[in-house]
Each structure stands twice: as structure tokens, then as C-alpha cells.
Amino acid sequence: MENNTNKIGYLEGIRGLAALLVFFHHFGLAFYSAYFTHNIDASHLNGAEVRYGQSVFSVFSNGNFCVYVFFVLSGFVLSRKYFQTNAFSTLVSGAQRRFIRLYIPIAATIILSFILMQAGLYYNGPASTITHSEWWLGSMWTFPDAGSRLFSSLFYTVMFQGDSAFDTTLSSMSIEFYGSLFVFAFLALTHSTCNKHIMLLFVLLYCLFTRNIYTATFALGISLNYLEQRHATLNRATAGVFAVILALIGLVLGSFPTNGMIGGTVYENMSMAVLQQSGWFHIIGAFFVVSAFVLSPILQRIISLRLFIFLGYISFSLYLIHPLVIGSFSSYLFLKLSETMPYNNAVALVFLLSLALCIPLSWAMTKFVDVPGTKFAKTVYERFAKAIPETATGKTK
User: Fold this and answer.
1) Domain coordinates of the chain in residue numbers?
2) Which DSSP category does 270 fall into?
3) pLDDT tens digits, residue range 73-95?
């Protein structure tokens, strides 16, 4: 979720597309929640959203799968420079800057959400009674004593405990933070190890037996460095075939219903022994999809189009800010339009205007909060934490 002009374009493109799909997921939960719950009684499209939710195409709005794509990408991106340079200093720098780099845009989002609450600008409650999303849209921003919750969120519960009271996407931030530290710690501890990939395999086996799915996503991201380094030895046609197979399998796995309701899906007749491992489906799917892009120059060119690169640039901000837009602007506009327009027409217009608002807001947050925050983290590291170089005599300068 970082904005770095030195990053390979296709990785930024994947990140940008994933952030956009998370927006689709949350907008769907707010206005067409039947696609997620498979509850025909909550349908606004004569059951069409239920059929969509049961199909493999639901992968394109499966937020849980997209978050795992983020985690796999983080494992890959955070370790990539180290694998290219074998410089231990990159691990020290990355680890010491990581908290501030993540915290500044997160803190800005929490404060903005608090302001919206205090100003009474969240209309998600009334809107949810019409959209049949009381269980999701209607459940947010209803807690008392927002002031004390703001204090705890800013100081420890979000970054260390995944508190999502002010923004539903914040539940993944502690995982991202701890996962990032795992990446740096693993590479630091195995810095002098010849067979680093063997140690990584042991970590993955540990994750498998302990069902530590979150650490596994970052470990799999690290392993993509080996794929990137060695795929050039593969025949281009062979690599392309592998990429297509991995992408298709990954997308099917990514369509597994997050709620576990498999009736009417391709998983309905799958053996119970396999379904017991369904908690890994999205993780493996995310790994396969990202692997497909690593293997395929064609996929890399497609996802490196300027639109996807721009989405990658604003991806962290878009990921953080869109639930606030849905709970305030989208819900308010829907309430007004639904008084004079058919439900689906109103939602279609709300979707377009909400997306049109999210894009410039995310750009502004990236430019004025996220990018300066990244630079500030670097400045703090260089002034207060960076090791003082030694002279040839061993004395510090």
C-alpha cells in the first residue's frame, strides 16, 4: 500500500485495481447486500444479485480476497529491494519507518471520521433500513462516547488491535503492520543464511499447521522474489500458459463465499475434507493471481496502463476513505433520490457520484497526507534512527 515512484508499474496497478474492487465490495454490501448474504428476501434485483454472489464472477467484489492480495503484495514489495541488493540496511530502514508511514494516513482517516460523526453527517442508519443492510451499513458509527474511542483508536487500538470502529477497513491495519514487521524480521534473521528459501518453507509449514493464515500471506509474498528471479529461465510460452492457469485457478478460489454459504456455488458438491481447508482458498487464490502477473509480461502491460497506475498511486487513500464516503455522502444522496426515483436508478446514480467523489478525495489525501507522511517517516529515520557510518579507522564521523 505504498506510493513509491521506484516501484514496478504492474505491482502498483494490481494494488490500484484491488482497492477499487474493495470499494465495489463495500458499496454492494451497503445497497445490494443480498449478493453477500444470499438472502433472496433482501434482493432488489429479483434475485440477480444472489445469483451473482453465488457465481465465480463474485470474485470481482470479494473484499476479503482483495485484502489478501494486498497482503501478498506487501510481502513481495517490502522484500523485493532486499533481494535485489542483499543490503541489510534496507531492512533496518523499512522496519523503522513502517509505523509512521502507515500511521499518518490512518490517523487522518480516524480524525475525519470522528468529525463526520460529531457533525451528524453519517446517514448510514436511515439508509440501511431501505437497502436491507442493517446488519452491515446500519451497524457502523453507532458507538457511544466517540471522544474516548478517538483517543484509544489514535494511540493503540487501531495499529495494534485492528479496531475498525471509525472505519471498517481499519481492521486490516494491525495485520498489515505486524505482517510488515514479520517480513523485515524474517529477512534480517536469515540474512546470513545460504538456503533462505528452506527457512521460508519451514515458516509456511508452521503457518499451515497452526492455521496462521495472515503470516502465511506475507511469507508467500516473500517467496514471489524467487519466482521473479527464476521465471526468466522458463520458455516464454510455457510461462504464459502457467500464468493463465494460475490466474484462472486463483480467481475461482477467490470467489469462495466469505460467509461460507456454498449453496448454489461451484463449491457445493466439493468434499468436506477439502472444504475444511476453505480458510486458505482466498490466500492461495491471491498468491496465484499475483504470481500470474509476475510470470506474464502481457498481464503486466495490461495492468500497467495509466488508469491502473493512477489507481495504484491513490490506492491506500482510496482504501481508507471510501467507507466514510459511503456512510455519509452516498447514504444521504440515496435517501434524497429514493424519494423521487426507483430504487435501482437511485443506486446507480449514487454509485457514479460516489466514485466520482472518492477519486479526487483519494488523490488529495495521497498528495497532501500520504506522500508527505512517507517523506516524514524517512526524515525521522535519517535524523534520529539511521546508524552513523564509520570511517576507515572504525571511528564515527
Assistant:
1) 9-383
2) S
3) 999 999 999 999 999 999 999 99
